[in-house]
Amino acid sequence: MANSMVVVTAHVGDFVWRCGGAMALHAQRGVPVHLVCLSYGENGESNSAWKGDTQREAVKAQRHAEAQAAAQILGVSSVDFHDLGDYPLPDSPDAVRRISETLRRTKPSVVLTHPEHDPSNLDHCRTFEMTLRARMQAMAPGHGADFVVPPQVLCFEPHQTELCGFKPNVLLDITEVWERKWQAMQAMPTQSNLWAYYERVALQRGAQAGRRGKTAGTRYGEAYQSIFPAVVSALME
User: Fold this and answer.
1) Share of the chain above pLDDT 90, in %
2) I need a surface site. Which of 65, 66, 116, 219 has the fewest CB within 10 A?
C-alpha cells in the first residue's frame, strides 16, 4: 500500500470536485491523505459569500470551515492552508518550501494537483508549477538527508478539459465512495452551483471506466493524467 497521498490545490474547493473520490477511497483503505490548499479562493471562487458589506476575513473564515468539514468527510489526515490569496495566485518560494517539507515528512507515492495548462484559471497553472518545483526540491539530497523517492504526479480533471489539453490516461472507479464525495461537495455551499456539474462529470467518467470491463457496477469515476512514466515489470496483468 502507498506510503501516503498528497493533494495540492490552488483553492479550497478544488480538491472536492476534482479528486474527492480518490481521497476518500484511499483514506478508506488506510492510506494517509494530506491536503495542501494554497488559497481560500476568497476573491474569485466565493461569489455567493460576498453579500452587502461582507468582509474579506469573514469570507475566508467561511471557506476555511467548509474545507475543514469536507476534508473530515473524506477522511483526510492533515490540512495545510497557505492563504496566499487568489485571482491571481502569487508565485511563492515559501509555499514551494512548505510543500517540499510536506513531501519530505509524508513521503507520498503519489501527488495529485492541477494540470499544467488551464487558460481559464492561471492560478491552477501556477499551482502545478509550484508543486513540481516542490517535488524537485524534496528529492534533492542537497536540501537535506530526508530526501524522498520521486513520487508520481497525477493531474486531476480541470473544469473545462477542452481548453486545457487534458488527456486522461487513468480512470478511477469511485463508486464505492461516491456518497462520501457527494456529502463533501454539499459541505461546500458557497459553490453549490458546481454540485450538479461535477455529479455529471463523475457519471460520465464512470461510464467510460465501466466500458473498460475491469469491474462490474462502475457508476462513478474520476479522470487523471500522469506526468511521469509508470515503471512496470510486465505489460499484462
Assistant:
1) 92
2) 65
Lookup result for grid cell 458546481: 194
193-237 confidence digits (pLDDT tens)? 999 999 999 999 999 998 876 666 899 999 999 999 998 899 986
Q: Determine the angle formed by the axes of helices 178-186 and 195-211, rounding to 10 degrees.
A: 160
Q: Cα separations (Å) of 230 from 4, 72, 194? A: 17, 31, 33
DSSP symbols for 163-186:
HHT----EEEE-GGGHHHHHHHHH
Pairwise CA distance, residues 157 & 154, whole Å: 10
Mean pLDDT along residues 105-113: 98
Q: Encode 156-175: b = buried (16+ Cβ within 10 Å), e = exposed.
A: bbbbebeebebebebbbbbb
The pLDDT-based confidence of 115 (bands split at 50, 70, 90) is very high
Quick check: helix, strand or coil at residue 223? strand
